[in-house]
């Protein structure tokens, strides 16, 4: 617990100092933007009010840091520059459901699929199924994700025309819980979801395969077989149950990457989630949004790590003894 | 022992492919220029977005540049980032992981906290934001940043290994003989970790190649440099997907996938040597182990 508090503090502090160590700051960016649009120097009063909203780079650093912490404690993430005057938290709330839905579902599906197939492959390691599926999976997991997504988009979106080429829903429909809108969400979501599952399940598969191969050789599995239990029962109740433990931690950690992990997916498919928000804020140098998204991503990752630690102690008693 | 790992066909194929790409990175541009007569940057405006043909084996892109020449030139950019990123990342993993495991105590406390911190920080968004603030980056900067944010996993592994070696008899004996700590760590403990470090390096290399491609895809790269990542990015920017110019973005991605597979093959082979349980996973032995079990089941 202490570590996570320290890590959260470090990340929050990093999030504060990074923009200040680097060239360019929010106020300068917006002043620059305004001067380019209007073509003339800003009045000093205008400059002052901008610095009031976006922070004065010349103010005392300790003072700024304190202000920043107080703001964060109130969950105030500042105001977006490119979508002025929308608060950053509003933008995050708009993107979050899309990301959670898309990546949350695919993370679970990829985990179940990969772990299941991996257990079967590891059970008869070196068998026909294993010799085909394992090298194939190795190749698939070596493919850069965004490239695979591009190829998928080209194949199923462009050539075959089965799925829309970008976006998260049919823009002609009103947003709401109507059946036609939900159906369009599903239609737009299938291809991005499929690419995520396809690229992610290989890791689970190989991990589970190797763990199963190792556990299958343990004495208690041999004993279970010697007792004459059916192969299926031995695999499910004895071997896989223990082999899945490391994958389980991985799963909890993967849940932490749900918010940040879909960055590339959302960029390829122009999906309206948090990752796409980070991407556009980066392009427009919208510093408050960048900081806000990073804050959210980091928070979920830390929470997931905490969860992973606690869950692991629950499912594996051996860990508990070590304290 | 040092050549034992070459007996695995996985290792041999993997190393072969990697060597090929290394040669391509070193000699590729010269090969393309003088042997094939191709210039990756030459725009032929009369030949825009041509599909593959005898003249242009992999076709041309939107700017009338030969895609094959670009793939060859891109090998240098991508491999450069891969190797430099892996050198930085591995060096940091060694410098932080090995002392942490060897010295223990307060040194370990501090270094291990640092490792865990970098382990939990989400790397891609962080790199994205750092490079975003930097504005305008070359391949070298990108490689350094990738290495700087990519050492934590390796450091953790090395820490665990160093911890176990530090407690072995020969290290204890040398310490009692009055050997100095730093020399012990780097001259006696480190050589025992070379196999592990080599496989970590490979892992880091493909990781850096992929990271560069990913960052380039997100628009963070030196647009004047040619790498597989910048190729895919410019294809994306010119909507190659929506116009069906597959020969533009498919080859560079395939090259990355091929390198990744090669590195995975080498690691597989090394893993099987290091972990006898994985190596024993051959059908003959599995059957032998299981038959008596089944027979026993039937008898009951």
Descriptors for this entry?
heterodimer; A: 323 residues; mainly alpha; MetI-like fold; B: 300 residues; 74% helix; 0% strand; disordered C terminus; transport (chain A); MetI-like (chain A); transmembrane (chain A); Peptide ABC transporter permease (chain A); MetI-like_sf (chain A)
Secondary structure layout plus pairing:
The complex is a heterodimer of chains A (323) and B (300).
Chain A: H1 2-21, H2 26-38, H3 44-54, H4 61-73, H5 88-123, H6 128-141, H7 145-159, H8 179-216, H9 219-226, H10 231-256, H11 258-261, H12 263-269, H13 274-283, H14 287-315, H15 317-322
Helix pairs in contact in A: 1-14, 2-3, 5-8, 5-10, 5-13, 5-14, 6-8, 7-8, 7-12, 8-10, 9-10, 10-14, 12-13, 13-14
Chain B: H1 9-35, H2 67-103, H3 105-120, H4 123-134, H5 139-148, H6 152-166, H7 169-176, H8 181-189, H9 194-217, H10 228-237, H11 240-243, H12 246-274, H13 276-279, H14 283-299
Give an account of the 3D structure.
Chain A: Pfam families: BPD_transp_1. The complex is a heterodimer of chains A (323) and B (300). Chain A has helices at 2-21, 26-38, 44-54, 61-73, 88-123, 128-141, 145-159, 179-216, 219-226, 231-256, 258-261, 263-269, 274-283, 287-315, 317-322. Chain A folds into two domains: 1-74, no CATH class; 92-285, MetI-like fold, CATH 1.10.3720. With 323 residues, chain A is mostly helical. Chain A is globular and about 85 Å long. Chain B has a domain at 76-277: MetI-like (MetI-like fold, Orthogonal Bundle). Chain B is 74% helix and 0% strand. Chain B is built from 14 helices and no strands. Chain B has helices at residues 9-35, 67-103, 105-120, 123-134, 139-148, 152-166, 169-176, 181-189, 194-217, 228-237, 240-243, 246-274, 276-279, 283-299. Chain B is elongated, with a radius of gyration of 24 Å. Chain B starts with 8 loop residues before the first helix and ends with a helix. The chains are: A mainly alpha (323), B mainly alpha (300).
